[in-house]
Every structure is written in C-alpha cells, then in structure tokens.
User: Fold Hyaluronan and proteoglycan link protein 1 from Goodea atripinnis.
Amino acid sequence: MGYHKRSYGSFHGRVHLQGSSLMDASLVMTDITLDDYGRYKCEVIDGLEDDTVVVSLDLEGVVFPYFPRLGRYNLNFYDAEQACRNQDAVVASFDQLHDAWRGGMDWCNAGWLSDGSVQYPITTPREPCGGKNTVPGIRNYGLRDKDKSHYDVFCFTSFHKGEGHLFTSGLVPI
Assistant:
C-alpha cells in the first residue's frame, strides 16, 4: 500500500513495521497472546523483485487435558473452546499436542484439537488405549462434527508476554 500501513482486527495497535532502513520489512508484534500462535506469511511486492517469507510463531507453554466436572466426553467443539478460555488457555494444535507427547504425555481419553480433529497421545500402549501391541503415538479419530460430537479437549496455555520480530526481508535495492 505504498507508504500507507494499516493493521486490522486483533492486530490493530499491536503490530508495526520496524523500518530501521529503507529495505527493512520486519514486522514487530507486541502484547503476544495465545491466539497469535501459528504461521505467518509476509509478501513484499517491489516490481519484479518480490519476496515471500513464512515464519512460525511458537509459544512455549503446557498442554493439558480438560474435561468438565459432569464427566468425560461432554464437550462439543464450541463448548471445548469456551472451557479452554475459562482456564486462560486455547484449544491446543496438533503440533502442540505432538510436542507434549514427545515430552512424555500419555492420556487415554480423546480430546478436541484446534483443527476440529479428535486425538489423544499414548506413550505406553495398553488395552484400553488402542491395544498393548500397538506402537506409541498420537491416536487420531479424524475430523468430527463440531456441533454433534462430544469429547474432552486438550488445552494449551503460556505465560508468554512480550514482543516478537516476525519477519525480516532481505530485499536488495533495484
């Protein structure tokens, strides 16, 4: 947009271009929240010399299984999102659950993930959890109906607050 810069939605007032030099297209994000986790794509268009960078913003934190006091498998996807928010968390992504599994998480009950799939991590295979003759891993029920299906949920929380430099472009003047 030329010299005009705008930020939209939840990014308004929290992002800006660093602009330390004429060719600097670094995006700076402040007050990082759990919802900022994910992949970002930055495209700088400069005539024939375009540049695209994809960067992942990973937050350190903890994944934990959650089920309501009323019992297991009572949450549709939208109730699961709210349950995590009530715990100052968000629904965990597959990558976050995978990292937790690699760290030793073993949980035999299936839970929602942020992509609408239902999965659970097993480090010690056993009969009630897919069978004792199976390999350790993340069991996947696949995508489920977000309104009608009911499971537990895996939540992710982080106490990370701060500033992140997400993109740096190495454009050369033409």
